[in-house]
TrEMBL record:
Gene3D superfamilies: 1.10.1660.10. This is DNA-binding transcriptional MerR regulator. It comes from Paenibacillus peoriae. Residues 137-156 are annotated as: Disordered. SMART domains: HTH_MERR (SM00422). Pfam families: MerR (PF00376). Residues 143-156 have a biased composition (Low complexity). SUPFAM superfamilies: Putative DNA-binding domain (SSF46955).
Amino acid sequence: MVIVTIKEWDTLQEIPETITSISQAAELTGLTEDTIRYYERISLLPYAERKANGHRFYSRDQILGIIFLTRLKATGMTIEEMKHYRELSMQGNSTIPIRHSLLEKHNQKIQQEISRLMETQKIIEYKLNHYRDLSTNPDLSDTNCNPTTPSTNPLF
């Protein structure tokens, strides 16, 4: 049995060549079994192959594809956008330029969100420092905790 360790996605999971159950697929992908079934039902994922007893089984490539979709979802890509991306990938190499463009646009959205979050983090860090200063030198009449403009609201 060949086992692949996924390091490039910061998951130190070992992915076997064949995943023999939906519960194992759920464990490897971080999704619930119900979510995997739902994604199959709405054609976000291809239907899994079935054993003679009707139970699903998955290939390593299918699991890697599911993990990639979870990353797209975690970064705000909609299910419809993910379905479109998957449909394009099913069409083969001729759609690589379109997929590249879609991922480039999505990456730009991610970068904008990261910038917004970093700015918010700076404000929260400023506020935390202000509270630390107040705890060591309590001057409750000083409500200035805005880095650029004095605050007139004592709650903030």
